[in-house]
Write a structure and sequence with these properties.
- The protein is α+β, with helices and mostly antiparallel strands and 264 residues long.
- Strands 1-5-18-4-3-2 form a six-stranded mixed sheet, with helices on both faces. It has a six-stranded antiparallel sheet with strand order 7-6-17-14-9-10, with no helix packed on it. Strands 13-12-11-8-15-16 form a six-stranded antiparallel sheet, with no helix packed on it.
- It is elongated, with a radius of gyration of 20 Å.
């Protein structure tokens, strides 16, 4: 992860506006296009995404091959990754914006039937039990068994950018962007009861092996990709993919993450 860096010279002339299907987001997009114009996202210098955090993640997935910076404005229910919505002064806001560069996780999952699936996750890769019975997982880090058996509802590996999302709800740590670590967090751990997870170097390769998978099936999810009845899941960071989010000057993503640690 790389932290927040101001880019005072950024003044894109070519903007692509995209919006979620929420009526307020659609209306905002139409008003902004009427005011500033819009071009295809493939040719844009910056993409302005209107919606909530979920739509921001969707938009980042669409620009993985383009590397185009994304400036979000909140027209959804949750806006931790978004800036405030304002029609006026957009060009000036973009010119003074800072950027947060993040790297996704790669998930490679194999099912009980022997099928292989791969996906990318911006926030986290999570494993969850599929039935009433707890999941049993063996966890390896860089090829070494670190936890021989974890009985739980599930487990997740989160990026710093995703540490304030599902990871935080599972009582995992909030991670600053420039910390270069990943959060390995159990979900409702039953045994060992006192294990609260671990912080791992960002280059770590984590392998989850599902124990008693026939009796205790487990699913694995990387953002919008869910794989059912997995037997093994491997996760590592993709440093070769860089995604850029833009934030208003004085309201950096780093500051939001820091403030979240003191929220009541």
């Amino acid at each position: 992860m790389r932290g927040f860096v101001t880019e005072p010279d950024l003044a894109p002339a070519r903007i692509a506006f995209v919006a979620s299907d929420r009526p307020e987001a659609q209306t905002a997009r139409d008003r902004l296009i009427a005011r500033y114009g819009s071009i295809d996202r493939v040719d844009a210098d910056v993409i302005v995404a209107l919606g909530g955090d979920g739509f921001m993640l969707e938009t980042l997935h669409t620009v993985m091959d383009l590397g185009t910076p994304v400036f979000g404005m909140n027209r959804g229910s949750v806006g931790f990754l978004m800036n405030d919505f304002e029609e006026e002064g957009l060009i000036e806001r973009l010119a003074g914006a800072g950027r947060a560069v993040i790297h996704p996780l790669q998930m490679d999952a194999w099912t009980e039937a022997g099928q292989a699936h791969s996906g990318l996750a911006i926030n986290e890769v999570s494993l969850l039990r599929q039935t009433r019975q707890s999941a049993k997982l063996r966890i390896k880090v860089d090829g070494r068994v670190r936890l021989d058996e974890l009985s739980c509802d599930g487990c997740l590996l989160a990026t710093a950018a995703g540490s304030t999302a599902y990871n935080l709800s599972a009582h995992g740590p909030i991670i600053p962007l420039d910390s270069r670590v990943l959060a390995l967090t159990p979900i409702s751990a039953f045994r060992p009861r006192r294990w609260r997870g671990a912080l791992l170097p960002h280059q770590s390769k984590v392998c989850f092996e599902v124990l008693e998978s026939g009796k205790r099936p487990v699913s694995a999810t990387a953002d919008d990709l869910e794989v059912r009845s997995v037997s093994r899941v491997e996760v590592h960071e993709r440093r070769d993919i860089a995604l850029t989010m833009l934030f208003d000057a004085g309201r950096s993503f780093e500051e939001r993450v820091l403030a979240e640690q003191f929220a009541s």
